[in-house]
Amino acid sequence: MGLQELQNIRDHRNDPKPVKKYSIPKVSKKRAKKILEDKATFEADKEFYKEIWLASPHFCQCGCKAKLGKESLTTFFHHLLFKSKYPQFRYTPENIMILHPDCHNSYHTNPDSRPEIKRRQSEAIKMLLI
Q1: Which residues, at least 6 apart from 123, have a Cβ–Cβ distance to it below 8 Å?
Q2: CA distance 29 to 35
Q3: What is the Cα–Cα distance from 100 to 78, expressed in whole angstroms?
Q4: Which of 99, 106, 123, 126 gets the most CB atoms within 10 Å of its CB?
């Protein structure tokens, strides 16, 4: 072997290995599909809530009559029959009650603290389920 060939081998040994470029997808295809579905549901919810908001007085319906302002928030809308348990009633106006956020949270923490909501929930069960 000649001097030049030895030099080429030595130089080649010191070359860094080529880095294989592989990137992990940030979101799986399944997750990307779920994100799109959730976004579509959110947009449909906003449209539905907008219709309810325009057709209702902007006061809390639990009995406290708190003013809710001029702009609707998704936290104002309470499903009497929960969306997770009764998805078929997600977009049923009779299943919605407009609540002040404090009243809404209070009900979810302690349902007995808001008897009007419980009464309306019983009515919704009779009307929609029986």
Answers
A1: none
A2: 10
A3: 10
A4: 99
pTM of the model: 0.75
For the chain, 130 residues long, the average pLDDT of each consecutive 10-residue run is 59 63 82 95 96 95 93 94 95 96 95 95 92
- Quote the tokens at residue 121: 């929930």
* Model pLDDT, residue 77: 97
Phi and psi angles of residue 22, each rounded to the nearest 5 degrees, phi first: -140, 125
What does DSSP assign to residue 15? S
- Measure Cα distances from 15 to 10, 12, 103 in Å: 9, 5, 68
Q: Which two tokens stand for residue 46?
A: 């906003």
